[in-house]
């Protein structure tokens, strides 16, 4: 594969804003109360961590020290494990270094242990306290404060809410320059304000559900979803009116070149597919003709990508969808899951992995619950954002295939703390031979996606570090239950 080249320069509107007011809280429901950890499952570790009080656990106050609250026969051993992956560390300093290096989280505060040391979960302590007849309670220790938790998801939630995302987010957190302007509207400021509200919502005790609140959950990680349709139920319409979102989506898409599909090649494809549909040519002959056209000197790089895509698709007709699989070993170790599809780019100087610039999620049946689809979509957002953050990519292409419909999205970090996840094209693939000619109608769309991928999903010339913001941990979400559908689904993935 070719070495990464610089992206086309985009005319990014920027201002040096003088608006440094504290973030406003527009919604009464967005409580700014500090996040409270459930009393039954967290505790502040104390010297020796051996319990001595007889008060029942249900009466525990949050943040109380555990040696004052339970019986003397109980001993708490703390595990030193990363909140976001299974990495175990020996010292909290190493833990914070790991979180910085592996998960890109900067400036986590050092642990204040106020002079005592918790008992560590290890084989010698296990043996020692088991021999003493103690009941051993295992907890996960926070890397930045004296608290510990029974569930790892709670630890992740705590670290996110208390240490990763500023507890008092103000406009001062936002870099002043390079704001994204749509007409008179400062999208960067607006979105930041919205993020502050979402963070408050997340900190409040109300459990959030992914499928009804995915916009809020994504916004906390700095991701703004721009769908083709203009009605967004879970985005506040007073802040993001339909007209503004439509203009925002158009503004993102305008950054990508839009070449027309070569007319001569299009005519040839039409002839080839007609012969196939009319049973004049076999599937093999058809594919050979497409590949021959692909190799013709007059065929440009964009048309070539589209021809290869069509050739690949014909190999699987009749079928529900094109075949996708895990092609490349995981490079994003900390991600709890992996996408169904990803494209790895390898440096031309050798065989070293460079970056992943495309991800896909595939559901073969169109009859999938909206909850699962939105979960897939959320995962795609996370994979794409991780790739941008880790490899300084200008854009990342993603697609979600549901039955025979493929929706392409592009994620772009185009302003401080604003990652747009923009719907690019939606294409219904033919599932039977007689519909193969439908592909001719999609050539322009396929070319747009191919050009976007080849020309724009590459490392940025600009160092984007200052524009990045933290991502809500995946474990945090395991806490948010996937409840049954209660109101219309926000993310439309079918026509
Ligand atoms: Zn980790
Ligand atoms: Zn903590």
Quick tags:
alpha/beta, disordered N terminus, elongated, 12 helices, 12 strands, 495 residues, 4-stranded mixed beta sheet, 6-stranded mixed beta sheet, zinc ion binding, binds zinc ion
* N- and C-termini, Cα separation: 35 Å
Q: What is the H/E string?
A: EEHHEEHEEHHEHHHHEEHEEEHH
Instruction: Enumerate the spans where pLDDT stays under 50 for 5 or more consecutive residues.
Output: 1-69, 319-336, 479-495
Report the sheet-strand fraction: 5-15%
How many helices? The count is 12
Bound molecules: zinc ion
Shape: elongated
- Write down how many β-strands occur, each being a DSSP E stretch of 2 or more residues: 12
Structural class: alpha/beta
Spatial arrangement of strands, main beta sheet = 7-12-11-10-9-8
In round numbers, the mean pLDDT is 75
- Rg calculated over all Cα atoms: 26 Å
The portion of residues assigned to helices is: 25-40%
Task: Draw up the topology in text.
Elements lengths: L41 E3 L29 E6 L12 H12 L19 H9 L3 E7 L5 E3 L2 H13 L16 E2 L2 E2 H17 L6 H11 L2 E4 L15 H12 L9 H15 L5 H13 L5 H14 L26 E6 L6 E11 L6 H22 L3 E8 L2 E11 L2 E11 L14 H14 L17 H6 L16
Parallel strand pairs: 2-3, 7-12, 9-10
Antiparallel strand pairs: 1-4, 3-4, 5-6, 8-9, 10-11, 11-12
Helix pairs in contact: 4-5, 5-10, 7-8, 8-9, 9-11
The structure holds zinc ion (2 copies).
